[in-house]
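Task card 7
Instruction: Convert sequence to structure tokens.
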Amino acid sequence: MSGRARIDWVDYAKGFCIIMVVMMHSTLGVEKAAGAESWLGHVVAFARPFRMPDFFLISGLFLARVIDRDWRTYADRKIVHFAYFYVLWLVIQFAFKAPGMAAEDGVAGALGQFLLAFIEPFGTLWFIYLLPIFFAVTKLLRGVPSWIVLLAAAVLEIAPIHTGWTIPDEFASRFVYFYAGYLFAPQVFRLAATVIAQPALAVLGLVAWGLINGLAVFGGVSEMPFIGLGLGILGACAVVAFSALLSKADLMAPLRYCGEHSIVIYLAFFLPMAATRVLLLRTGVIPDLGTVSLIVTAVGVIAPLLLYWAVRGTRLRFLFERPGWARIDRVKAQEFAPAE
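Output:
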């Protein structure tokens, strides 16, 4: 369990975002394999401006509680923790992809791709790779006035940085949201509390945001400088508001559960997603690509949770719980630390 009491709306937000992430990969994968677009692609496009900004903003919300810890403890919880899961799931994903790589590029080529994954994140694992970098950079910048860091992060997001290397490109695009989550956490929690207290006003605000976001996305301007940043911030706030509304009556407990185990889903969704996509497209039992994408998304979300339930309390729990030998802090309070 986490060291903090869980907050329902935060888990709802994480659940919403992880499902949107799986949906994106599922839908784009189906469309690419089939060579055609699907109706679910419009949902994926609508979510593009806020999907990852909100994920990173939520990731930074609780950082203020731990950022002043000594470097060893901080590094163990916020850097080594994610590094362990990145390397572990890199090996797992590579084991499935290596035969195809070796057939195409030879054994040396496949080995080169594996080694490259330590500087260029492998496949869908880039979020797990980038998150500890954000934690490290934020702590290193503690002595710099926060407004300077925030301004610099905003400039990076606005600037057209496209090096072709995932880390600098995604760092430039996403750090502003992570840092904003850390810096404005009190305001974010205040927004959620206000939504819970005034739900009718919040619904009106969400409708207005939905219209603005939709017009920008389908009008082709959502990725323009300044507009993209504005939509990211508004979208992150909208997800917070939407999640707070859901938490008020706990309307969708399964979504909250997905949020509680969002890292579990993120780590393990790729393999069941890819297998289901191949199976459905090759058999052709479902002709509608949107429906295929939706089924692939559902399997990508549910299968990791089933795997998590299956390995809990077994020797395979290291898949989602970091063992004691992979820790560097002085006091090892528990043998295994959950991925969350």
